[in-house]
Automatic annotation (TrEMBL):
<dbReference type="InterPro" id="IPR015424">
    <property type="entry name" value="PyrdxlP-dep_Trfase"/>
</dbReference>
<keyword id="KW-0663">Pyridoxal phosphate</keyword>
<feature type="active site" description="Proton acceptor">
    <location>
        <position position="185"/>
    </location>
</feature>
<dbReference type="GO" id="GO:0008483">
    <property type="term" value="F:transaminase activity"/>
</dbReference>
<dbReference type="GO" id="GO:0000271">
    <property type="term" value="P:polysaccharide biosynthetic process"/>
</dbReference>
<dbReference type="InterPro" id="IPR000653">
    <property type="entry name" value="DegT/StrS_aminotransferase"/>
</dbReference>
<dbReference type="Pfam" id="PF01041">
    <property type="entry name" value="DegT_DnrJ_EryC1"/>
</dbReference>
<dbReference type="InterPro" id="IPR015421">
    <property type="entry name" value="PyrdxlP-dep_Trfase_major"/>
</dbReference>
<protein>
    <recommendedName>
        <fullName>Polysaccharide biosynthesis protein</fullName>
    </recommendedName>
</protein>
<feature type="modified residue" description="N6-(pyridoxal phosphate)lysine">
    <location>
        <position position="185"/>
    </location>
</feature>
<comment type="similarity">
    <text>Belongs to the DegT/DnrJ/EryC1 family.</text>
</comment>
<dbReference type="GO" id="GO:0030170">
    <property type="term" value="F:pyridoxal phosphate binding"/>
</dbReference>
<dbReference type="InterPro" id="IPR015422">
    <property type="entry name" value="PyrdxlP-dep_Trfase_small"/>
</dbReference>
Amino acid sequence: MLAQVSIKIASPYIDKKDKKAVIDVLESGYLSLGPKHLEFEKKIAKYCRSKYASSVSNGTVGLHLAVKSLGLKEGDEVITTPFSFVSSSNCLLFERVKPVFVDIEETTYNIDPEKIVKAITKRTKAILVVHIFGQSADMTPILEIAKKKKLKIIEDACESLGAKYRNKMTGTFGEIGVFAFYPNKQMTTGEGGIVVTNNKKIDLMIKSLKNQGRNLKNDWLIHERLGYNYRMDEMSAALGITQLEKLDWMINERKKIINLYNRYLSENKKLIIPQIGKDRTHTWFVYVVRVLNNRRNFLMKKLAEKGIQTKPYLPVIHLQPFMKKEFNFKKGDFPIAEKISSETLALPLYIGLKEKQVKYICMEIEKILK
């Protein structure tokens, strides 16, 4: 029998300033297409060191807009990772673009650059890089491959806001980068996302596509292209502004909790703690350990009985029922991703998690796996 949850897996950090910002918008009467989303776009572009930013309703639609704005279409192929949340592949399928998976690095769980070249065909048009769990993929060889083969790069940085590779922000290496702000992320807008680019033409296209295909000359009922309602509302943008103001502090607070986990778990030989790749920083969307000897599910069940919430992060995309049916994927296609997926477990991580709680979680893990 499962105990009542006493330690949640995640919780957003919301303070008085956040609440006031949202209430101020509600009282202003400008709930959509007001000044706040423009202010948020300007400020987050500066934070990410990008020329342009466009706010959207969530990360998935941001990825869809990235695919659409690059003109990717049926018959094209895009190389990506099977170890990710499913939206990084769904965004391709929305436009009938074929995702071509390659396996991952066993240490960082990011796409393995050494496996990309063999997957390139005459139909390959882009690489969709996922920066998983809060740290960058190994971008130098990926950029070299893309340049040599004349491929576009889309960065799914939805889990890695603020992370750097060789002192450059994730989301700013390729043509387009996408961030997301679901409540368990480094910062939140409730739902919401941002698309960043240094290309003005791409930015204008995204701003049109997300707003029903309207032109950008304030002709409200003139639609120049097929578009979508992918806009961010003003309440979410206002929350984003105040969250962004304390983002670096929130990331540092998360790092303090990570250091506690690493201290208490580093000697446990029954699991592997997260590793940070060379030239990379980590902003800790989640804290994921690898549980060895096929005991991940057993550990998860036993922790739940103690009121400790955990989740398996992440199921591989190619073995999802829809993907198996559509593309005939099978077990063994991407063995490293499958192995990691069967072992990884996300532990509780949120601002406000106390040291005594972290210590309790780690002690219970040690007892269960002993």
